[in-house]
Write a structure and sequence with these properties.
It holds the Pfam family PS_pyruv_trans. This protein has about 280 residues and is an alpha/beta fold. Helix content is about 30%, strand content about 15%. The protein contains ten helices and eight strands. It has a five-stranded parallel sheet, sandwiched between helices. Strands 1-2-3 form a three-stranded parallel sheet.
Length: about 280
């Protein structure tokens, strides 16, 4: 996509009109290659990716050879591409090939993505979800809440990072120590979570958490949010798009960020640790 943006920017700057064909999966409402009328175009620009005539994984015809056949009346140029075999007909049928890298060459050209317009400033969102928790029996709404949250997250303009609070020194994909997890959480803008520790550890790291309690009527996530005085929490029955959007925007606001971090925790009073020490100091005699 960045390669396409780089080409679009260059064409626009040169005053050359163009259309862009997208994958129907990636952009369902945009122009798709199958819908583009070859008679309406003078040139076809193929940007990025490898140039080869291999069939599709399901055994279908080569997409690039099909492109050459369909747009045979247009000039065709490939730019910013990898060329593993210069004699491949998918390569030789282009009128011009401006490769990023070419078999037999030790040095290539700079990738087109480096010439794309400057990126926008989008939030970085960690996503910490939980299944399991069968101890809640018929009150469990975990699958329903996960589906609702993931559908909603797909509509959010943000970089989404799946995370897990579980520690495992044997799996490189998981944090091995609490410090590893803290380092990730502290770099995020928001955490969206259905886990108690997804919320608690995000707040400890100074990152606002949008928490959804996956247990009908509320359970430990809601209770912990109340203990911390944290307002961005929803019971599963409240977690509709409007409320999720509202709390997400609040978490991104200066007010949301200001309420996080150890310095914002309400006094624990004579809390759990005090109770533990008193119990241990008790004399049975």
């Amino acid at each position: 996509m960045l390669a396409a943006e780089a080409v679009q920017s260059a064409l626009h700057g040169a005053g050359i009109p163009y259309d862009t064909a997208w994958s129907p999966v990636f952009r369902p409402d945009a122009l798709h290659l199958d819908d583009a009328d070859p008679a309406a175009f003078t040139d076809v620009v193929f940007a990025c990716g490898p140039v080869h005539s291999w069939p599709t994984p399901d055994g279908g015809p080569s997409p690039l050879l099909a492109l050459h056949d369909r747009f045979a009346g247009c000039r065709r140029v490939a730019v910013g591409v990898s060329v593993p075999d210069p004699d491949d007909p998918a390569v030789t049928r282009f009128d011009e090939v401006l490769p990023r890298d070419l078999a037999g060459r030790r040095t290539g050209a700079q990738d087109l993505s480096l010439r794309a317009p400057a990126p926008g400033d989008v939030p970085l969102v960690g996503v910490v979800l939980t299944g399991g928790q069968h101890e809640y029996g018929a009150r469990r709404r975990h699958e329903e809440v996960t589906e609702r949250l993931t559908d909603w997250l797909g509509t959010v303009d943000a970089a989404r990072v799946p995370l897990d609070t579980r520690l495992d020194s044997r799996d490189w994909r998981l944090p091995a120590t609490p410090d590893h997890l803290h380092a990730v959480l502290a770099r995020l803008d928001v955490v969206v979570t259905t886990r108690l520790h997804g919320m608690v550890l995000a707040l400890r790291a100074g990152t606002p958490a949008l928490a959804v309690d996956p247990v009908e009527g509320g359970a430990k996530v809601s209770a912990q949010a109340a203990a911390l005085g944290w307002p961005a929490v929803l019971r599963c029955e409240q977690a509709g798009k409007r409320e999720l959007d509202r709390l997400f925007a609040w978490c991104l606001s200066p007010q949301g960020r200001a309420q996080t971090g150890p310095h914002t925790l309400p006094p624990d009073g004579d809390g759990l640790l005090g109770g533990l020490l008193r119990w241990l100091a008790r004399s049975d005699g």
